[in-house]
Amino acid sequence: MEIKQVHPLFVGEVGGIDLSRLLDAATAKDVVAAMDRYAVLVFHDQAIDDPQQIAFSQLFGPIETTRHLINPNHKLRLDKHIADISNLDDQNRIMAPDARRRMSGLANRLWHSDSSYKPISATYSILSAKVLPSWGGETEFADTRAAYDALSPQLKAQVDGLVALHSIHTSRAKVGFTDFADEERAALPPVPQSLVRVHPGSGRKALFLASHAGSILDMPLPEGMMLLHDLIEHATQRQFVYTHRWRVGDLVMWDNRCTLHRGRPYDMAEVRDLHRTTVSDMANDKRGVARASAA
Predict the structure, then answer these.
(1) Are 212 and 168 in contact (CB under 8 A)?
(2) Taking residues 198-216, what's their average pLDDT?
(3) Which among 3, 162, 199, 201 is least buried, having the fewest CB atoms inside 10 angstroms?
(4) How many CA atoms lie within 13 A of 9 on its CB side?
């Protein structure tokens, strides 16, 4: 495995590895070490199918099932362990302009961390490109370790120890989407997340932000929302951001504990089909934060 750093702060481009073949334990350990350093890894030219991607992802922990299982009316196009990052419906047709999943998915253009709205959030997300449009559809990543390092001493002192409330309903409401089934609202209440985390692999502090975050505990709502807005604006300055321009066969793996990401616009009349697996952060169960906050 060879790695070339492609951004001054983070992001490694990996060569010499075939992810369609299950990695041995030593190589999987090397991937984890590389993730601790680079936070985002890019693997080009990977002819990988969904079962192979699931097997690769399971090397790093249990993987999530899609949240769309909660909605009894939602029909899945892919395996329940694969997040469908596409503009296709369950019949493999381009979705209608007003399709519910398309309207909800527009919020993915906001800066976020995958699954921060779940009691057990995510470590790694792993996204592979199957079909791409002729233009657009890039994914941008921001290094929230470097963003934390660049905070003033006064702001570091202010944010350390704060807890934000994250909800999928918050991020979707920011783009005007509120069409959630009762089952979804009941199953996905707001969850508390520490605003600053120490990454267990690198030992570095990182901001833990997302468009899912809507308020800060024990802070007036306008003040908390303004602080979250300012922190995301700070963390996504160009010096902290890498833009990935996809090629078919790319697989990109990122660490949600120390990065933000967002999708960019593309021609919705053309097919864009990417498949994502998401590894659960079972070692950092946020229900413990909820208990501590309530105590």
Answers:
(1) yes
(2) 97
(3) 201
(4) 21
Residue 164 carries which side chain, given as an amino acid letter?
Answer: A
- For residue 25, the SS3 value is helix
pLDDT in tens, 262-285: 999 999 999 999 999 999 998 766
Q: Which domain holds residue 255?
A: 2-294
- What are 261's two structure tokens? 């990401």
Across the range 233-257, mean pLDDT stands at 98
Q: What is the pTM of this model?
A: 0.93
Query: CA-to-CA distance for 210 and 258, rounded, in angstroms?
Result: 11
How far lies 102's CA from each of 75, 105, 117, 261, in Å?
Answer: 14, 5, 20, 18
Task: For residue 186, give the CATH number of its domain.
Answer: 3.60.130.10
| 275 touches 132 (CB < 8 A) | no
Sign of the alpha-carbon dihedral angle for 130, 133, 137, 139? positive
Q: What is the DSSP letter of 65?
A: P
CA triple 146-275-125, angle to 5 deg: 30
The answer to whether 38 and 146 have CB atoms below 8 angstroms apart is no
Look-up of token digits 């995301």: 232
166 vs 68, residue with greater confidence: 166
Distances (CA, A) of 245 to 141, 171, 196, 231, 251: 11, 25, 29, 26, 12
For 272, the enclosing helix (H) or strand (E) is none
Q: What is the pLDDT of residues 45-74, one digit of tens each?
A: 999 999 999 999 999 999 998 887 777 777
Residue 165 to residue 116: CA distance in whole angstroms:
9
Name the nearest CA neighbour of 275 among 43, 82, 140.
82
Q: Give the C-alpha separation, 61 to 213, whole Å.
A: 25
Query: What is the enclosing helix (H) or strand (E) of 27?
Result: helix 25-38
Provide the number of structural domains found in the chain. Answer: 1
